[in-house]
Amino acid sequence: MSEITKPIPRRENLHAEFYDHCKNHELRFQQCFDCGTWRHMPRECCEECGSFNWNWKPSSGKGTLFSWTIIHRALHPAYKEEVPYASVIVEMEEGVRLVTELDGITHDELELGIPLEVFFEDVAPDVALHRFRRVD
Amino acid sequence: MSLKDKACIVGVGETEYTRGEIQTIMRLVLKASRNAIADAGLEPSDIDGFVLPGPFTIQEPLAANLGIENLRYSIMIQMGGASAVTSLQTAAMAVSTGVAKNVLIPFGWNGYSEMSVSKREDPREKIPPRENAMSEALRNYYAPYGAFAPMNHYAWIAQRHRQLYGTPDEAMGQVALACRNHAQHNPKAYMQGKPMTMEEYLVAPMMSDPFKRFDCCLETDGACAVVVSSAERAKDLAHDPVYISGIAEGHPYPADDIPNRKDIFKIGLNFAAPEAFAMAGIAPHDVDFAEIYDCFTYVVLLQLEALGFCERGEVGDFAQSGKLHHGSDLPINTHGGLLSEAHVWGMNHVAEATRQLRHEAPLQVEGCELGLVTGWGDFGDGALAILRR
Lengths: 136, 389
What we know:
The complex is a heterodimer.
Chain A: H1 13-23, E1 28-32, E2 38-39, E3 54-58, E4 62-71, E5 85-92, E6 97-102, E7 115-124, E8 127-134
Parallel strand pairs in A: 6-8
Antiparallel strand pairs in A: 1-2, 1-3, 4-5, 4-7, 5-6, 7-8
Chain B: E1 7-14, H1 25-39, E2 49-53, H2 59-66, E3 73-77, H3 83-96, E4 102-110, H4 117-120, H5 135-142, H6 150-165, H7 169-183, H8 198-202, E5 206-208, E6 211-212, E7 221-230, H9 231-234, E8 242-250, H10 268-280, E9 289-291, H11 297-307, H12 315-320, H13 337-340, H14 347-358, E10 370-377, E11 381-388
Parallel strand pairs in B: 2-3, 2-4, 9-10
Antiparallel strand pairs in B: 1-7, 1-8, 4-7, 5-6, 8-11, 10-11
């Protein structure tokens, strides 16, 4: 019987492009070519100006802790050995927010606004996921 | 034109709420539907419209099982747990315009036996994922980072609120205890006969911080249905009509991604509530009871703020004042709610509000004239119905 692995993103639509950059250990978000508005999740056009043109612009990789939950009850069997683990939201300097996991921070240290920076973990031959760790 | 008082809830019915007594969803839905139709004093063939909350029930076999030869209107509402209340709006639109005369709104599922959250997230169970508003965010941006279920996603909203405003665990506990206490009076409630103290609530195991075990609703099998007719027809039916006086749905922005909302506490109900209150011409404190969608305790607290019962950040004090219990100012979930009666996507909240306003509820709010029912679903969709006798 094959081992149960953690779920990885699906290679679909604009989401595949986001993860192509992650594979290269780059955190990039869409920025509207015409009005400069940053956005995440990836979308087809700009909510501010309607433009269909964008660039995948590099993020500074820096952000702050916006919220979190410490998960004690694993709902996916691949996480049975991980609990308790924190699932968090980071607010990036660009203004967009993303869900991620942390490394090297105890749950007691978690508080709103602590400064974080991105790094990447290769989880499959062609998939890397972003993680965040504390910066001071 | 406004929908105010144009349509009435004329029939309510349900199955028993159980765990593990496997019946097909269609059988559950048919039992609840036939009960609701009989309660209205109608025959199944009098039904000529369906509003179907959620994805589980298909119109064609439902019509065939009920002997409805002339189905004049049918539509599905896809707002998760907000679908039941939103369905009232769509049904009111249909009956007040003459598109249909009597609209059936049925919900049923095997929420414990086939669809429990732990089964849904286990790939060995081979439950096919449903494509919906949440799918892209879930599989690309949440699940790869360990966040699988509403318990995790709503916890992000609750945690930030709690950190900013210092809501104590005991405020969440007041919601859990009100529901559990009220369920003790309700023979249909899964938790009847299982009372709970604040101490028991506080020491329960953590699930997804800040949600402990009793902050999370039940998973049950069962069905519940209501029938909506126009206000004119309702006068001739079996019970005193319950009027839909104010009704609105609302969606957070963006609805398909929780983290990237400018104001993460602005939920669908923030959009729906002012519209429904204005339509009914009342203020929040005018209602005699509130059936509030309670998938998680903190979701009830967020909705109390969105409804305008208190200012943002003040719901901790509001809940701890004891107002939420029967006999006080604003009894909530007088049947026990999803937390202690059953989880049928809040259709049971609509049924309970109807029975309260008919003055035939097991735990009656004495002399009540006006009540509200909320829905909450998916990533924070919302709906509000103001009902009166």
